Amino acid sequence: MSRFSGVLQLTDLDDFITPSQAKDGSYFQLEEDGTEQKLQKVEITLADCLACSGCITSAESVLITQQSQEELIRVFEDNKILKSQGKLQEAKLIIVSVSIQPILSLAIRYNLLPNDCAAKLVQYFKKLGADMVIDMTVADDFALLESQREFIRRYRATESDGIRNVLPMLASSCPGWVCYAEKTHGDYILPYISTTKSPQQIMGSLVKHWVGRNLGNRQIYHVTVMPCYDKKLEAAREDFFSEETQSRDVDCVITAIELEQMLQKDEISLDSLENSAFSQPWLLKEDHDVTPSLTRHIGSGSGGFADHIFRYAAKELFGEELEKLEYKSLRNPDFREVILIKEEKILLRFAIANGFRNIQNLVQKLKRGKSQYQYVEVMACPSGCLNGGAQVRPKEGSSVKELTTLLETLYNSLPCKSPEENKSVGELYDSWLGGQESDKCNAVLHTQYHAVEKAMNALNIKW
Ligand code: SF4
């Protein structure tokens, strides 16, 4: 960290503060003579958070009380009491949606196969009092399909109408990145960010609106299981508060590391639990319950956005069916690009930028008009979501790098499935959204961003 004309400049942005750096919850300044001085606590509100995977994402997570394990347990307990008193109409329908990265993180922690880990997590949540546990792949698929089409719309708008500020399209599924863009680069960068909601928030709309309506308008408490604390900030955004249900689309986000703590507190080893099935409430006519059979998307472990959109665009715009994509690492392995060349002309140039160091470089290039990309999968965590800030920590003697490699290997061992193959998504487009590209589709699956005035950055930190 160095000083520049009265403001602080953070230079090593990938090094977030972990709880292990604090002694007894306190931080100390090391003086030149070797003595330590306990630092005063600083009050930081959510409005000050840059979602840099630093403060809120580790030691200060307790600030988000509505998003805590304690709140989750309280809701489960209250619901059990209501049910035991026969007040079924007052009891909430508790639905838990689980994403792939925390499943893999816990699978490694408890030495389980991914599908067994998912099935045992279902059983754990059912024991706590969940009414349904759902695999979030359906929302991942919606996000990819919407992003693909959004890219084509933006590309054509640039080509035919010469509309500026629509390319490159920047990924929107990482709240760490979105929050940083809103608070530091405001109106300049926001038009480039894809309006497609993240999978978590698409799941929120699906659960609160479609499932709620089709299961007798019950009051739903929706929990998501995610790889980072930044997803709590995303769930808490005003844009995701519904006037209709008078609630947020995601009420509580629980991370892999918090789940590990909950299991430890309950003295439960995940591997000792029975297997249980995921629910698929949109399968109204058939059996709702399905044994976990996890799949992955081709491309990165952060959802494969760059890969999918690249392939789709190559086919849709240039009639090219592509096999395996070859990415080239540029400055570092966390900045990779892929290009489509025909007759010595570059038709498409996409990139994946992980970690704040690469994000900063990308933003500076964009501001100088030097970016050559049409799409960038931007993710705040180095190595992306598999290495999310709230995944289970490495075992003693093992490094984050080794654990990330393990997670990537496990992810790549899952069978691949394309979003177009998901029949449920096709049916939901019709039954829920009135078809692809409909007005309802745009209203439900897309969102907006808001530039935050610089004055609100209470710490006066320069990024
Ligand atoms: S890269 Fe993924 S895990 Fe990390 S902050 Fe973004 S969404 Fe969360």
Can you walk through the features of this model?
With 463 residues, the protein is of the alpha/beta class. 36% of the residues lie in helices and 15% in strands. It is built from 14 helices and 18 strands. The strands form 6 sheets. A 5-stranded mixed sheet has the order 7-17-16-15-14, with helices on both faces. Strands 6-5-8-11 form a 4-stranded parallel sheet, with helices on both faces. A 3-stranded mixed sheet has the order 1-2-18, with no helix packed on it. The longest helix has 25 residues, at 137-161. The relative contact order is 0.16. Iron/sulfur cluster binds next to loops.
Q: Which class best fits the helix and strand makeup?
A: alpha/beta
Give the % helix: 25-40%
What best-fitting shape do the alpha-carbon axes yield?
globular
Our count of helices gives 14
Q: Please report the first level of CATH classification, the CATH class of the largest domain.
A: Alpha Beta
- Spatial strand arrangement across the major sheet: 7-17-16-15-14
Ligands (ions, cofactors included): iron/sulfur cluster
Largest sheet: 5 strands, mixed
CA radius of gyration: 22 Å
- Count all strands and give the number: 18
**Quaternary structure:** single chain
The CATH topology assignment of the largest domain is Rossmann fold
What's the pLDDT, averaged over the residues? Answer: 86
DSSP strand content: 15-25%
Number of individual domains: 3
Keywords: 4Fe-4S, Iron, Iron-sulfur, Metal-binding
Protein name: Iron hydrogenase small subunit domain-containing protein
Pfam families: Fe_hyd_lg_C, Fe_hyd_SSU
Domain Iron hydrogenase small subunit: 397-453
